[in-house]
Specification:
The chain has four helices and four strands; from the N terminus they run H-E-H-H-E-E-E-H. The radius of gyration is 24 Å and the shape is elongated. A two-stranded antiparallel ribbon has the order 1-2. Strands 3-4 form a two-stranded antiparallel sheet. The longest helix has about 35 residues. Helix 1 packs antiparallel against helix 4. By secondary structure, it is of the alpha+beta class.
Amino acid sequence: MLSTDRFFSVFKTSARGLEAQRIALGTASENLANARTSRTADGTPYAIKRAVHELPEAQRDQFGNMLDSMRLGTARTNAAHRASSPSFETMAGQDLGPKTNIEEQVQLRAEYDPNHPHADANGYVQYPDVNVVEEMARMISANRIYEANLTAVQAAKEMIKRTLEI
């Protein structure tokens, strides 16, 4: 009999992917909203934020080893050989997927506006160097990956539903 952890691991993994893309979408939106912010509460121009997705080295190695063993496992004919190889059960209950951190990058551009209240002695105002096209591309990419994760959840739900109907 299959454990419920095995059924729900796809939901845990997809949830992590959904969270990562929600953060990426939020940072891109925040960058666009603050593209003309010359001063924040601490008195400095807005710092551009980037969502950085990292998969811990241990998970990368474990996942790769598991895939290798599963590929080789299909060529085996003796059930005892498969029993000793890693399987999806070894990863059940683990927190799978990338960890998402937000990093700030100070990238400024100077714009000449001597009448601006934040202009320096030469009349230049420091703004964050937000590239609107890049940020829109990040938002579209995050949105599509988010939708792909939702599709994976829907497919898993349908498979589980059909399994329980049998």
